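## retry 2 of 3
previous attempt timed out at serialization; input unchanged, resubmitting
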Amino acid sequence: MEDLSAFGVDAWWVIVIKAVLVFGVLVVLTLFNIWLERRIVGRMQHRIGPNVHGPFGLLQSLADGIKLALKEDIVPKAADKVIYVVAPVIATIPAFIAWAVIPLGPAVHIPFTDTTTPLQLTDLPVAVLFILAVASVGIYGIVLAGWSSGSTYALLGGLRSSAQMISYEVAMGLSLVAVFMYAGTMSMSGIVTAQAEDLWFALPLLPSFIIYTIAMVGETNRAPFDLPEAEGELVGGFHTEYSSLKFALFFLAEYINMVTVSALATTLFLGGWRAPWPLSMWDGANEGWWPVLWFLGKVIGFIFVFIWLRGTLPRMRYDQFMAFGWKRLIPAALIWIIGVAVVRQVRLQGGVDTRTLIIAIAVVVAVLLVLALLPERGSVEPEADEDPRFDAFAAGYPVPPMPGQRMPEEREIVAVAGSATFNTVAGSASNTGSTTSETATSEERRG
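## retry succeeded, writing output
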């Protein structure tokens, strides 16, 4: 097993080779994931999906990428030109940098050389915090893209995205605290080593794993949490005004972030590059280049979950989504951290029977589930003398009702429409009658 002393001693050409390989793998994996998503969603919707360009349509994503890069690049007149151009770059670069500390395998021998190096660009004592910090920088690219476009829809998409990603980053970070307690380190290679000596952390830390999987979907703006790009009310979200290569960079950043959070989940909860059971019983399963295959298999499994959710669940309402993050995920993560800390301290001291501890944890989990499933208190009904109707066009454009407001009843709409029609007909009839009388009076005068 590698420790931190195995890093920082590679020759410059080894570092360049590993960096280029990571970049190439991410780009190729992005093209593959786009093809995979279109094929899987096509099967779910009883369609064929891409199947013309290349075997099984594998080259369709490459053709789409080339076509998108060669399209006309349109810059809005009201845009802030410099920030408008820089924003996609700010969103894309952190997606690649995060992979600098993700382990893809153990130490391997480079062919045709006498060099042995770990399949990881580098490692840090706080590598997980480094990934979270780098991922947070990508939010600036999305916010600046929405602000610099000079469009109301893009600005609302950028604000939504910033609130969403910051909120769910809190839940994501809290879900990882229990992993740090169990592993005793924040180093990525150290966490993989800790899972080799014990169970995969997804089993003893199942609530942390569930919280992380939910938070990573919200963090990457994927369905059913793709509210910054809600085309129903925001056209296309923060990248509405982008085209050509700039739009392709946002697209690339989204799919690489999917792979990044999947790789982080694989490393922290599913043993990293280590072979799953029963393959782990083979002595050579965790040696050489085989671990890269196990690692990519686990990552693609998470990608399939992303695609499955997109093809299955409808988009949530924004207030429901934010309430779920702040009122459900974050409190659950905090309570779970306290529970894990107590259990770890008790186990280290050996002062409580394990059976009693398990029963107590089960009771606490049951109470938390009941509290989470209880419906929230309903909105306050309006007073009798208040008008409960909601005018959707009061601001000059249609807006949905806020919580506690309701649209007028159907009969009220019909009554209002009927009275308006009656008034219109009556007014027309009176106008016609007055016109007829005026005509008769004028004829009498001429006679």
